[in-house]
Design brief:
The complex is a heterodimer of chains A (115) and B (579). Chain A is 77% helix and 0% strand. Chain A has 115 residues and is mainly α. The radius of gyration of chain A is 45 Å and the shape is rod-shaped. The mean pLDDT of chain A is 78. In chain B, a hairpin with a 6-residue loop joins β22 and β23. In chain B, α10 crosses α15. The relative contact order of chain B is 0.11. Chain B has two domains: 85 residues, Penicillin-binding protein 2a (Domain 2); 327 residues, Beta-lactamase. Chain B contains 16 helices and 23 strands. About 1% of the residues of chain B have low confidence. Classes of the chains: A mainly alpha (115), B alpha+beta (579). The interface between A and B is large, with 34 and 40 residues.
Amino acid sequence: MLPLSDFRLIQKNRPVLLANTDGLGFDWNTIGKIKIRVLVTFSLFLLALFATQLVFAANLATDGQKLAKVQEAITKYESENADLRAQIARQSSLTNLSQKAKTLGFTASPKIITP
Amino acid sequence: MIDRLNIFKFLIFALALAIVSRLFYWQFLSSYSGRNVPSQENEIQAPRGEIYASDNFPLVTNQEAFLIYAKPKEFKEDPILIAKKISPFLLSEKYATNSASLTPDEQKQKDTEIKNIEEDLLKKLSNKNLFWVQLARKIAKDVKQKLEAEKITGLGFENDDKRFYPETSMSAQLLGFVGSDKFGKDIGYFGLEGYYDKQIRGKPGTIGSEKDPFGFPILVGKYRQIKPQKGASLYTTIDRVVQFIVEQKLAAAVEKYGAKEGSVIVEDPKTGHILAMATYPNYNPAGFSQFDPKLFKNSVVADTYEPGSTFKLVTMSAALDLSLVGPETRCDVCSGPRQIGGFEISTWNNKYFPNSTMTEVIQHSDNVGMTFVSEKLGLDKFYSYLGKFGLGQKTGIDLQEETAAPLRAKDDWRKIDLATASFGQGIAITPIQMVQAAGAIAAGGKLISPKVVSKIVDNGQEEIIRPDTEKQIISPKTAAQITEMMVNAVDRGEAQAFKPKGYRIAGKTGTAQIPLAGHYDPNKTIASFIGFAPADNPRLVMLVRFTEPTSSPFGSETAAPTFFAITKELFNYYGIPQN
């Protein structure tokens, strides 16, 4: 157990340890330095978080763009496919073929032809 | 020093607070409130199922088309100018051809239509209270591209697929068309489109997503999609070639005989499959709104008619089946006109054949001879056989507008009604019922209900469609006897000159007067011919029917030649050799 005199001695020595004290005995320079470090660190942390979020957001935006492009391409191909199918059907329809046959001079046989 | 430090502290704190607040807002508040973040829940249209012919060629398929809308509040140009720019693109298809090929009358009609469209558009576009207004539906892709090239601010497009008919108006009444219901949704009307609407319309999907300010989807947001489910596809029994031949011949015959309307049904008697079904005049389902709505209904299933002498086959079959008469039974009342219930029954040409056999009664299409048969039958047995032949009830054909053509209650029949009904007057049936009845004779006495669709394919799963009814209604012996009578009627009857040589064809002509305000109009008839070929192993049963032919009122001079002309082409197509 420490003797009471030792505690008093420490109290006495305190002004020696802390320079530039105010009337209450606080060293503002030291405290200020610590606070600025904390604030700078916190700000940097926030900035890092913000930057990270920006990177993520940018990536997501790019992915969104990619998805939109893929969907656009699918729609385009589906549309072209449907168009081509319709064109094939139109060209190979009997209505169209018979018209072409007539234009080329083909006529139906008046006789019954069986194998 | 302390001030600067405080200012710096304050700035850092304010920046941190702003960032944290904004993040908090984005992460929590905005997702709950749903404000500021564009979020959409859109319906995705389900593609309608296709309809195929028996060779898997599409009779109806889908084509990309668009709905045009406007946002009047976003216009940067005068609505009058916009209406003028758009209206020429919204013309109906018949005016979509080059102006140079239009007659002066057509050009005038085209100008009027443009003016009408312009006025209609202006009404919609000038209403600044409207946030969104629909301008036109089912607009073709090339029209959309032309409109886009005009770069009109406030004009937008949405997918709005439309039906495409590669064979244009072929089978129009059979297929039906797709219109809109009261909510603007696609719905099938008439024919197959109407009958199978629930199956082929599919299930619409939805897409819900949050979007960034540029309109791209945010993947970590609420992005959900329920894919639309395409409607079922119908595989019909329609033989495209047979249908084409039938339509060509029918159109030519209606013009030739000056008929008001003509129709043909071709069925495979062994399966009940409809091979072709045509009515002329017809319409183009792609532009149905430009045609008379009277054309939409498929008259061969929806309209009733008095079948006339073709109905003698039903009466004779019943009497033969009950052994009340035989092919050689002689008619002892056929020497002249008869008085029944205060009415005189005579033959169609006032020629009489005393002591003729039942085979000759059919050959001469003898009305008096049929009264002899009906008396042998009596009302109860006759009525019972009407039911057996499927008359008075729907055949079950898969077409929306089929009618049952109910028979009069038995108690309401008088003696004269039985007499006239025996030769097909005073009784109304549908053409498809007549085909079903003749099909039963062709199939050896087995009645098979007709069907147009053979299978439905839904999401890879096949459902085979079978006839509703398949039952023996007359004995094979009776069927063979009546077939021989029909062959004899073709070989020796009024229409023998038109028959293709070297083939056995079973058939019967019919000429029925049309009832009009309580009496029969002698100048207006329904001329028909029903038959099947080849008689010994039928590949097809066919009914040809003309309403009010003007060149001749008789079936033997109008419907019969058309029947044989089609049959000849079909023998070629099927490769059926002569006997």
